[in-house]
Amino acid sequence: MWHRVQTLSDCLQSERPGDVTLHAIGSVAPRPEEGPNQCLQRAKERVNDRRMFPYTHAKRGRPPAGRSVGSRGFVLESSVNGVAGAGQAGTRPQKPSRCSPFPGQGAGGSFIAAASPAALLADGGGARPALFPVHECVFKGDVRRLSALIRTHNIGQKDSHGNTPLHLAVMLGNKECAHLLLAHNAPVKVKNAQGWSPLAEAISYGDRQMITALLRKLKQQSRESVEEKRPRLLKALKELGDFYLELHWDFQSWVPLLSRILPSDACKIYKQGINIRLDTTLIDFTDMKCQRGDLSFIFNGDAAPSESFVVLDNEQKVYQRIHHEESEMETEEEVDILMSSDIYSATLSTKSISFTRAQTGWLFREDKTERVGNFLAHFYLVNGLVLESRKRREHLSEEDILRNKAIMESLSKGGKLMEQNFEPIRRQSLIPPPQNTITWEEYISAENGKAPHLGRELVYKESKKTFKATIAMSQEFPLGIELLLNVLEVIAPFKHFNKLREFVQMKLPPGFPVKLDIPVFPTITATVTFQEFRYDEFDGSIFTIPEDYKEDPSRFPDL
Asked: Are 392 and 487 contacting, i.e. CB atoms less than 8 angstroms apart?
């Protein structure tokens, strides 16, 4: 049975042998003019002030979760599994150790109140205040304690602000902690609540050695991810029949000058067994440049991973294997580009997305249905699709900004990047930002969405663009979306195909998306049309390198 002790004096008078003490984080009585939410907020503020008092106790056994105390106000309780002698009512709770493996555990094995209400983790039927011990050690630069915790804790866990331990290590310039986390394969691609990865934060901080280490680890983890998926992917391809698929890309922009130079592309995909061939005229398309040509991309599922992917330049009759290992020079050049460019993050928000049937006709409106290629399709309007883009440039000098602007102006007028002699300049590490003065308690107790900024002072621009789109779904298309995703995963090196893959992973209306609009960049959209599909058989030679082609390892440097 639980006994609620309403005052400290009551608590002192209520000692009984064998009881387990529970230390509450704070208690607050409501004021006449405020409601429960305001009262709870003041209770949390007391937590942040560390006004912790013995508050309640119970018989031996697992106590229930923290809960409100009727009309007397609120209490946030810590809980323990009852052990005789675990604590004594009326004693002031001890402070947690600097980086306790079990947050809130004091001397003698009793759990004490945590300084933050940010994380109450479920423990069976009870709630226990739980800080983030790995994050705390990184924040305080405690490498010795971190090395002990890192073996038994999830180093990819996000704190209440969405940061992983690696995020914090990079933002605070704790290089020893960062290298230790990387040595244990801490995830590099993961983004925090603001949409930034540890690599993005490293670029902002400006330490070249750290940027290089993160970039290498990111590429290593990407390779491992591909290899991990490979058996499942090959199995799915083997079960899928041999087919020919043709689709068309048409890129558009509301920027007049840009729209004149945007490409279109007709892609032909051949699939036989676990081999895939893609014929295209567009191999690389970013906001900075596009590469054109008569190109073929071949995936050979039977070959070793290092020889699975080949790109043929059918005009120059050369080929390049898409290698996984980069040279030291290539890595250094990529670091130079990262350190001299805007840090950019784009997210396609689908939280409020909905689909409504498109209408046609002037007087008598009816649902729009028409053929796309050989397939009858129902048209839908896509509502609530928002492209959120964020751009940071606190790491750039005025010279960098002017230089980047000149590149963009040249490209918008139809110039080519290679003709402009815009070679990346070798970058040195930046002067570190001022020393962090925020305490761990201030950081972890901050309200969600209002985390104190760590690292270099932001120079930041954010924009949201509501994206109006149409999608045509056909029940007649022979291929399912899941099977399409497997094919698209194979040709993921093509960035625009990766955008298509991300889009069709959404919950779409019934059928197959035979025609759809997708945002590629904030100012650029693409209309993708699946023109033709048929099951077919092919000559196996189309999946091999022609004998008269020569190898050119540097033909496509971005692949």
From this structure: no
Q: Provide the token pair at 150.
A: 């890192």
Helix (H) or strand (E) holding 345: strand 343-349
Strands (E), 286-342: 290-300, 309-313, 318-321
List pLDDT tens digits, range 101-119.
333 333 333 332 333 333 3
Structure confidence by residue, pLDDT tens digits, 234-261:
888 888 889 999 989 888 776 655 555 5
Query: Quick one: pLDDT at residue 488?
Result: 78
Kindly state the DSSP code that residue 135 receives in the 8-state scheme. H
Instruction: Give 360's strand partners.
Output: 366
Decide: 517 and 504 in contact? Cβ < 8 Å. Answer: no
Burial of 344 by CB count in 10 Å (0-12 exposed, 13-18 middle, 19+ buried)? Answer: middle
Q: Using an 8 Å Cβ cutoff, are 391 and 343 in contact?
A: yes
What does the pLDDT read at residue 157?
95
CB atoms within 10 A of CB 57: 24
Q: How far apart are CA 364 and CA 384, in angstroms?
A: 27
Q: Is the dihedral of CA 181, 185, 189, 190 positive or negative?
A: negative
Is 424 or 304 the better-scoring residue by pLDDT?
Answer: 304
Q: How far apart are CA 248 and CA 261, in angstroms?
A: 17
Supply the pLDDT for residue 352.
84
Kindly give the residue spans of alpha helices, DSSP state H, lying in 132-207.
133-139, 143-149, 165-171, 175-183, 198-205
For residue 21, give Cα distances in angstroms to 12, 24, 63, 121: 11, 10, 10, 19
Distance CA 17, CA 175 (A): 50
